[in-house]
Design a protein that fits this description.
By secondary structure, the chain is α+β, with helices and mostly antiparallel strands. The protein has 23 helices and 15 strands.
């Protein structure tokens, strides 16, 4: 609409005006800007009005498409009445997020408040029925086995609500009668407002209308177990408002809950008086309880150690409120080619320089735009500038940003000291960031610090939340240490075998196990392990590693053939011909490996 477009242009002009006023002032000594200030990073001084306006238009198109898909997947029945008596009767536990950076959009209207219903919003019976309907579906269609959804480095069991008809029907009713009323009432300042022209006479249509403006973008039913629910990666949600519904009691499992960055409990008498939560994990104890919050706060699912934990997690959109920054980022991420969206991501950072995930996205997009030149010094320098600015001016321990910067220092710039500092920041952000532990383990290995390498490998193992890939990597490193330092071949092989139990298709432990066997002159099993290593996907090893493995396989084969020749001679048999020996080499090595060497 015309008024909505004017609002976006006004925002654009404000950004340009503030930038021009600050252009003459040095920003190097300025403190990090507050969430309601627009202070453009110096590396974005080139962004002009046209670039900003183009990004705003893209955000509006992405928003409209998202709303259309949301209403198709989770339609709202406006004939259903909101159960306001129930919603109004529910006392809420109030928490606040006190951490650097800010929300991607509407930071002034939403603030970073988290609420938990002290009493269940949903009945125990309907929660149990949802789980029965879900299990019945999987019994009928998947032999009782639940599907899984990748969540970063973890796979979590569960399903999209829209895919299970019985659960979907129930959920759409709950959204209209209980969930959106609770969200609209609790976040009324945000829900009632309007920044798109809807041809209404007032920008404040009232709570009843606000309830109809919220729609569910996505919802997933998670099944956390010790096997399929170690945790999720730290992340922000794809919606302005998010919710988590407990479907069973906390007595049915150990662990669980949701970790939040900077979680503090608000005093019931004075909400500005807060107490830090240690650990910063929010738990719901009863089936039917609900947690609601802005979608842009950092969080992750905490690991379940015993039993089964069932929750519904999802996020909402506001039909009349465009999340400009988040929609720009979503469009870029969904495109499959971030390099084409560098300009839009730059614009998003101009509109909100305080949302740290956008810096990491921009750094990745810069590399993708460079294509084959991604390792060029100028490209790396640009990425470092973007990421370092975020850590210095926006969020000093933004985990994703620190990890990306540390990886550049480790893999591209060979600055192990700076890499270590970055990865340690990741652990300050999240003490269970096993990817950062693995990176620190590899930094120590590259620096020849066996003590630190073993320390982080053991920390990964003790964490209880490491993925099989990272856990296997830790065991492999411990195996190398056992072989190099302790010369304990049995312990060394034990670690390699543990690693391969977790990751049978990993080159490093397979190659290392083969080498340990060869060291013991167990030539035949060593040759078999080298063959298995060579059969792995080509991206598992460098060309140099492949040649070295072929050479080691040849050495094992030579010992075996020599032993066969000596045995034949001792038995008085004639010495095999050269052709016969070559056939023996091919039989043991495999013809393709022999020919390749």
């Amino acid at each position: 609409g015309v008024r909505g477009m004017r609002a976006m242009i006004a925002l654009l002009l404000y950004v340009l005006t503030v930038h021009s006023k600050q252009a003459s002032a040095s920003s190097s000594s300025q403190p990090p800007p507050s969430s309601n200030q627009f202070r453009r990073p110096p590396f974005l001084s080139h962004v002009d009005r046209e670039q900003l306006q183009g990004a705003l238009q893209s955000a509006k198109q992405q928003h409209n498409q998202a709303i259309s898909e949301a209403l198709e997947n989770y339609p709202l029945d406006d004939t259903l009445q909101a159960e306001m008596d129930l919603v109004n009767s529910l006392p809420l536990q109030h928490y606040k997020i006190e951490a650097p950076a800010t929300l991607p959009d509407f930071a002034d209207e939403l603030s970073r408040d988290v609420f938990v219903t002290e009493q269940p919003l949903l009945t125990r019976e309907e929660c149990q029925q949802v789980l029965k309907d879900a299990q019945a579906y999987f019994d009928e269609h998947h032999n009782g086995i639940w599907t899984t959804l990748p969540s970063g480095q973890y796979d979590v069991a569960g399903f999209w609500i829209k895919n299970i008809p019985a659960v979907h029907k129930w959920f759409c009713q709950v959204v209209r009668t209980k969930l959106t009323p609770l969200l609209a009432k609790t976040f009324s300042e945000f829900a009632v407002g309007n920044n798109i022209d809807d041809n209404s006479e007032s920008d404040h249509a009232g709570l009843a209308d606000a309830i109809t403006q919220l729609c569910v973008d996505n919802a997933y039913l998670f099944k956390y177990t010790p096997e399929t629910g170690r945790r999720t990666d730290v992340h922000t949600d794809s919606g302005c408002l998010s919710f988590t519904i407990a479907l069973n009691d906390a007595a049915e499992y150990d662990g669980g809950g949701t970790w939040f960055d900077g979680l503090r409990r608000a005093n019931s008498d004075n909400e500005n008086d807060t107490t830090p939560c240690d650990p910063p994990i929010l738990e719901m104890h009863h089936a039917g309880q609900v947690t609601i919050r802005p979608g842009g706060v950092k969080h992750c699912g905490n690991a379940v150690e015993r039993g089964e934990r069932y929750i519904i997690g999802g996020f909402c959109l506001h039909k009349k409120k465009i999340e400009v920054v988040r929609q720009i980022m979503a469009q870029a991420q969904q495109s499959g080619n971030l390099g084409d969206y560098v300009k839009n991501i730059e614009a998003a950072l101009c509109l909100n320089p305080q949302f740290d995930p956008a810096y990491n996205l921009l750094a990745v997009a810069i590399a993708e735009r460079a294509g084959d030149n991604a390792s060029n010094n100028n490209v790396i320098a640009k990425q470092v500038e973007v990421l370092d600015y975020c850590l210095q001016q926006v969020h000093p321990y933004a985990g994703d940003v620190a990890y990306a910067l540390g990886s550049l220092y480790k893999d591209n710039l060979n600055d192990l000291d700076k890499a270590r500092v970055c990865f340690e920041k990741c652990l300050r952000a999240d003490s269970l960031d096993v990817e950062a532990m693995a990176a620190l383990m590899m930094v120590a290995a590259a620096a020849g610090d066996a003590t630190q390498e073993a320390k982080y490998a053991q920390r990964i193992i003790d964490s209880g939340v490491a993925s099989d890939k990272i856990l296997g990597q830790a065991y492999c490193n411990l195996g190398v240490l056992a072989g190099n330092k302790e010369n304990n071949v049995e312990q060394e092989m034990h670690y390699y075998q543990k690693s391969l139990e977790l990751n049978p298709d990993r080159f490093a432990p397979r190659y290392s196990l083969a080498s340990a066997l060869a060291q013991q002159q167990k030539w035949l099993p060593a040759a078999r392990e080298y063959q298995t290593a060579l059969a792995l996907a080509s991206d598992q090893m460098t060309p140099e590693q492949r040649v070295k493995t072929l050479q080691h396989l040849y050495t094992c084969t030579a010992h075996l053939v020599q032993a066969q020749v000596q045995s034949a001679m001792q038995e008085g048999k004639p010495q095999p011909s050269r052709e016969e020996m070559m056939e023996q080499f091919q039989d043991i090595m495999g013809k393709s490996n022999f020919d390749e060497l």
